[in-house]
Each structure stands twice: as C-alpha cells, then as structure tokens.
## 1
Amino acid sequence: MSIVEGAAGRAATLIGPKPPVLVKLAYSLGQSAQSGGFDAAIAFVFFYYAAVLGLSGALVGAALAVSLAFDAVVDPVIGSWSDNIKSRFGRRLPLMMLAAPLITVAVGLLFSPPKGLGQTGLFAWLTVMSIAARSFISLFNVPYIALGAEMASDYAERTSVVVYRAMAGIFSAVAINAVGFSVFFANGGLQRPDGYPGFGWTVAALLLVCMTLCCLGVRRYAAALPQPEQVAGAMWKRLPGEMVEIFANRSFRTLFISAVVVFVAIGVNASLNNHAHIFIWQLKSEQLQFIGYAYLFGILLGVMGAPALQNLMEKKNIVLIGFALLIGNWLVLQVLRLMGLYAPVGDEALMPLAINAFIAGIGVGFVSVAYPSMMADAADEHEHLFGRRREGLYFAGLGFAGKAATGLGVMVAGIALDLIQFPKDLGRIVGADLPADVQFRLVLIWGPAAALLSIVAMLIFTAYNITRARHDEITLALRLKQGGPPAL
C-alpha cells in the first residue's frame, strides 16, 4: 500500500497537540478584540460620524479607505514579524501583550472626537483613530489567530479551537450590543451624540479585561509550543519573497480572494444596517438590539452546528451553505419591499427582520468556524509544498481580507449615501421621514447589491480543493518528514 493510499487510516494516529479546555477557554477571550472591538463596537462608527455628527458619507468612506491602505501594509508585516519571534513567551504572545493597552486607548478615542470640529477636523480625527484602531487590533489579532492554528494540528481538533473562539466572540458582541442599546443608546439615543464617548470607553475597558485574561491564560501553553528557527536578514528584504511564496499556493489564493469579495459585501450591508432599520423599517433605537441578538443567536447555533456538519461533509460544503443563507438574508425581504409586496414598519417589521437576521447568523456561524480552520489546513499544505511554516502570514492575509475589505465596503457605502442624496441633517431627527425614492435606492444597495457580490465570492470559493483525505495525506507527509512515527 502506498503512502497516499494509506494516508487516511494512518494520519489519525499522528494527532498533534490537544489543548486543555481551560486553555481553550482562556484563548477564546482574545476574540473580543476582533468581534467586540472591531465588528461590534466599530459598527456604530459609520452611523455616528455620517448620520449623527453630519460628516459627509464620502469623507467617512475616504477616512476608512486611508486606514484600509495602511492596513494593507501593516498586516503582512505583523504576520512575518510574529512568525520570526523567539522568546520565553513563545513567538505570538509578545505582540499580543503589547497590543492590548494600545487597542484600549484607540477604541476609546475613536468614539470621543473633540467638540466643535468641522468637516475637515472630523475627517482627520476619524482617519487617524481608524488607522490606530485597525493597526493595533491587527497587532493583537494576527498572532492571536496564528496561535490558534498552532495549538492543534488535527483536522477536527483545529475546528474545536475555532468553535471556542467563535463562541467567545459571539458573547462579547452580545455584551457590547447590550451595553450600547440598553444603557447608552436607549430611547432614541442612537441619534444623539452624547452617548457615544461613554460607550466607547466602556467597550475599551471590557476589551482590555478580556485580552489580558487571554494572555495570562495561554502563556504557559504558548511558551511550550515549538518555535521554528528564525530567518536571517531584515524583514523588509525577506517580506516581498514571503508574500510571493504564499500567493503561489492556490488554496491560499482562493480563500483570500473569496474572503475579500464577501467581506466587501458584508461591509456595505453592515454599514447601512442602522440607516435601513431606522429610516426604512422605522424601528426605534432600543429595538435594534433585538435584531442584533437574533443575528448573534443564529451565529451561536451555526458555530455549535458546524462541527457536527463537519462529520457529515467537507468544510468547503459548510462554507457554501453559509454563503447561501447569507445571500438569502440580503434578498428576500429587500426584494419584496422593492416590489411593493411586503413593507411592514415599526413594531410589525421587528419580527421578520429578526428572523431574517437569525438565518443570516446561522450562515455566518458556519463560515466563521469552517473558514479559519480551512486557512490553517492551507498553511499545512504550504509547509508541505514550500518547507516553511507561514501561519502568521496566512492569517495576516485572512485578517487583512476581513478588515480591509470590510473597510472598502464601508467606503462604498459612504459614497453610495452621497450618490443617493441621503439628507445629511436627517440623522439627528428622531422619527424623520426619508423620501420614497431615496428609500428605494437605499434598500437596493443595502440588500441586492451586497447579495450580488456574495454570489461572486461563492463562485470564486468553489475552486478550493483541500478535502479531508487530502489533509490526511499532507499531515502524514509532514510527520514523516519531521521523523514522526513510521507507517503502520
């Protein structure tokens, strides 16, 4: 029997490290930086600056585009940096510990622009603080995600680590939404500027606690993980070659490009959520949290169900199902409204929107578990093909795809608001009516346009071809190369 033919049976005996439950729990708290700090808290920024503070949508988009360009440079540098660190804390933890207090300050200041700033001043403040928040979250998140890939090498155990991380991210997002809508933005407060600074600093403090507990909880396990030999030479000299190398792997290219496209769609849709919910469906600010909870509960079910589905099908198929559910969320209610067939408002709109968000959340849960696990599998394939571990750069690519493409989606959403002539002063008026033609164009961008982009991402993603059997072959080949157990 050849190595390839017997790989599936023998690879099961070559399972690598399996972190204890307490270590996985502590590790999972670090997801608050991304899910809580970036996805949940910063989701309020677009509405705050564009609708409440009155900054031009194009300028909001431009500010976030500048931070996007900066992120394009920062993420791979951090990935390469963390791949090449050797310390008594391991090669990932030093950057995470450095980033935690910096994230805290940047997030707090992002929600606290000085009073009296005009358009230029607001644009400058948003640009600088967005760059700071994105960069410091990258400084934590890139080594954090790479550490998760190193904590386990088994096909299934790797998914377990991702599940812990995803569930912690959901709970942190729920907590931040609850604090926002129930404390700072209750009774129409989303359209008032005075609640945002307190919200920002409260979120910053919560993130600091979670990131600190994460670093303390994993420090011994992270320090005990293997640390490959450092690569000689300056980073600026070796990084271009490393970038060329990772893009030479078809699996990475497929995951990266499809992630960029779908995150642009998510950025467009998410940036306009508050505009659509308040000005189209006419919900009250305090009602928005229930849509968020339905969405997050859907994600929780998706995250919990993904490992069970993985026993029945390939990770690739789980992602495709997730994409389909997400696309449905952006088409059903929106198309019905555009056609004039179903247009509930106020209390009548809350339940259908919550159900829609719940279904989308299940899809996102599937993707959020399977996708990072697939990226870790692709990193194994990279070592098999090129002889070097590149988890840092691989997850820098995934992180960049998420943050940068979402930023691009925000930029598109900002420009779109100006193109559809959304009234700049309307955001501060509780109960204001949006002209019907502007409503139509807003719904079109918020739903069907985002769905079309996701369909493109779905088609790109179909080229991914690492199956369970292929990963078993890779695992066995790597263990044999490293002097692991002989074939049975």
Note: The radius of gyration is 22 Å.
## 2
Amino acid sequence: MVSYTIRRLLAAVLVTLGVCFLTFTAIHLAPGDVAESIARGNFVFDETPPQDVVDATAARYQLTNPFFIRFLSWLSPIFRGDFGISYAYNIPVAEIIFPKLRNTIGLGSLALLFAVLAGVPLGAAAGFRQGKAIDTVPGSFSLILVSVPSFCLGLGLIILFSVTLGVLPVSGKENPRSFILPSATLALGMFPAIFQITRGSIIDLKNHDFIKMVKAKGLPPGLMVGRHLLKNAAIPLITVIASQAGHILGGSVVVETVFGWPGIGKLVIDSIKSKDIPALQCCVLIIALGYALVNIAADFSYAIIDPRIRAGRI
C-alpha cells in the first residue's frame, strides 16, 4: 500500500507539472505581447502604452528571457511556497488566490452536497422502480439538464429569480443568499451523472441472487435499497462523485463568470484577459493537483469499502 501511494503521488505530481507546462506553452504561443498587455493596465481607456514603458515592463518581469528559462524561473520557487508576483495586481499571487480558492471550494462543496442528496435517493428509487413515474420523470429531467449548457442554465436562473421575481441577487458574494443561484447551477450540472450512475447500478444489482434472497425474507424495499443495493453500488458512486468533485475547481469557470463569483474560475478568465501568467499558472496548478488528489482519495476509499481490493484479489 505504501509503494502504491508513493507511485500515485508521483504520478499526480508529474501530471500536474505536465499540465502546467502545456498551459505555459499555450500562453507563450498566444498572440499579443505580454509586456504590452501588462503595461496597458496602467493606462486609462485602454490606451496603447509607449514603447519605453513596454520595454521597462518586459525587463522588470524578465519577459525577454528564453522560454524554458522563464518556465523554470516560475517553477523552482513553487517548491518553496513562492507562487510569484501577479502582473495585474503587483502583489504575491498567494494573497490573491487562496481567498478565492476558499470561495470556490465553499460554493462547490455546497453544490456537490445538493447534487448527492438529490441524485442518489432519486437514482436509487428510479432504478428500483424502473419504468414507473419515479423513474421517467427525474430521468427525463436529467436528460434535459445534460443538454443545457451551464451558462444558459445560469442565465435562465438569473432571469427567473433575479430579474423577474427579484428574490435573489444577480451576482457577487454579498450575503448567504448569493450562494443559492451559483450553487444551484453547479448542482444541476452534477445531478444527471450522479442520478444516472446510481440508477444504472441499482438496475444491475436488483436482479442478483442475493437481492432475490433478501426479497424472499420480506425485507421492506427501503431497507433493501439502503442496506444492500446502495452498499454494493458504492464503488461506481464514489467514482462519479469523485469525478464531479474534481470538476469543482475547473468546471466552475463558466458559472463563476456568469454570476461574478470571486473564485478560482473567475480568476482564470481574468488572468487570461490580462495575461497575468503567474496567477493563471497558479490556478492551473491548483486545479490539476486538486483533481489528481481527489482521484487518489477515491482509490483509497475503494479499498476501505471492498476488502477484496485490499487483499488484491480484484
């Protein structure tokens, strides 16, 4: 188990570094001059900065160095906990990103909780009562949600609850009510996968011999689903929940932009617009590493749930 853990952690680090390198390369190949974009932020009305200001900016941030030197000069301080200085805000990236990371994790955790609390019971009921109304109604709803892009869903919720009814704020993080619309948008995006996996697992398991034996003993349907069906469907459920949890950091980009939520996702968009390379690279690093660690945690949970995995039999 120790060697497996070390291998997975090393793989996670390598994947994260690979993603960061590809992102750095994409920024390097993108059209536009980074120094000019940084200097332009100091001028009003988006005026074109003088060439001497652009040259001074490039020298200040060492943007004239070769590509690999710039990447290594960003990467090496990371291991000391130094994420660099933001080009756009001229302060340490850590002071910008960690408060926004807390906002994203808080919003995403709330959304994931709602999606699990809705998707698992409805999926279990739909699978157990396959073909009944409890199956067709949420199943049709989940298919509709899969077909609707998250930005359309978010804008629809804004029009209904903020513009038409006027009961919820449009954007920002002013009070607890500000969590409702963005978390609902994220939760509705996560719901279909959790619902469908739960439903499919229950359908697959309910015709097994051990379930027929439980039925023959007269166990009530609710206890049958909770004690036997859901317990045996735990591994695919953990897989899909871990996948949705991994998407919280990266997948919230669109939702946070629509609702003006001060999180990692919105910071990614703002950093791309301003070519704030240190902030963008730090966002990508956290997103990639978070996704890898969530999947590692899911793998360990498999071993906790299924003794056969601990014994290496499957």
Note: The longest helix spans residues 93-128.
